[in-house]
Please model this.
Amino acid sequence: MVLALIIEMLALTCVCWVVFFLSTFAHELGHALVYMLITRNTHWHIRIGSGKSLLKTQHFTIKLAVFDGVFETKEDRMGSKTAILTLLGGPLFSMILVGILLYTRVKIVTFDSAIISSEAILFISSLSLFVNTCILLYSLAPIHYFWGEIKGKESDILQIVHIMKSKRNN
Model:
């Protein structure tokens, strides 16, 4: 009984970690893909999470606590149009994911499998919908982040506002 509870808690923790990781990764990948489409430049890096590093490659760093993420380029100065479009790429991907998750939730209710229960699938899709909605809302809120390694950094929309203000003042 206790062992089953421990196994279930570990499985739940792993599922939550994967959902947070994939949601954050999709958002940051949205920035990267838009940036690469516009600039044809492959000198960029995505960091997901805070704390101890689990994986580090040329383009990706994955850390243990996957509750935040950052897309960075090697360019010192990006044009305002490129910067704005790149900043919009993350929220756009998050919005697409939210739309897909809302659409598929209707299909999941009738899902039937011998391997995994429909309640588990519904839980995972609900958690994914919640996490992606939060990522979308946080990136569109004009705030400074207050947690993890992004503490003090500006949200995507706040960066866009500052770019547009500086462009208007020039």
In short: The chain is about 60% helix and 15% strand. The chain has a mean pLDDT of 91. The longest strand covers residues 60-73. The radius of gyration is 18 Å.
